[in-house]
What does this fold into?
Amino acid sequence: MSRHRRLVGLLGVGVAVACCGVGVAWAAVTPPAGTPDLALMVLQPADLAPGAVSGAQGYVAPPKGLTAQYAADFTTASSPDGVNYSLLVDDVAVGPTASASSAYFVAQRKSIASTKGRRGIVRSILHSAAKADHLKAKDVKFSAAGSAGVGTSSYIETLTISTKHRKLREILLVFDDGTAEADLVLAGEVNERIPRSDATGLATTLNMHIESVLATGATGPSGASGASGLSGASGVSGTSGASGSS
It folds into this structure.
């Protein structure tokens, strides 16, 4: 792996693990019967520019208090407006009530925005970095954070890692809507600026998927799509036949 690729990767790994609990070493689980088809809620290849490459995707152990969670990533992706990303990770979790998903959103926002939470993110990033990268805590910067205007409540911020002549930027967006909570992480290419409008646009699309599935009550085989667990680039199909990159 090249040094450039490694530095880009540690952004996605560090923040996805620290904030969203996904991104590496996913353990496949079978969701409860009657679970909405979460595979249809996450971003689909058709939501991105042609050429997006799917990575791992499937049901994972949900956070405490929630019923099910589905995570997916693209190892190469471009937004509809042509901005290239080295990693795109999104996940959707559902709870038994809107109050449960809202409570999880509040906990997520607090863990990300607090001094303690940000220190944890920085530690994860530094731990993921190779010694040759010579990263220090001061090399990781957080932007001002605020609402993304998506769902019932939302939170968006940008992280920047600086190392010598390289800058790596990543946008983290979290929102809740009804009984669902979603996380979206966009990691840019080296030295490329990434617009927040890409994150809010994709999050809006993600939210449209969520609302559509919740409104129709769509479920997949055995009560949930992808009940067999994680899949690779071939994707995961639900009852409608919607699939990943295949």
Observations:
- Helices lie at 3-20, 98-113, 115-128, 196-216.
- Residues 1-14, 20-25, 221-246 have pLDDT under 50 and may be disordered.
- The first strand starts at residue 53 and ends at 60.
- The chain has four helices and seven strands.
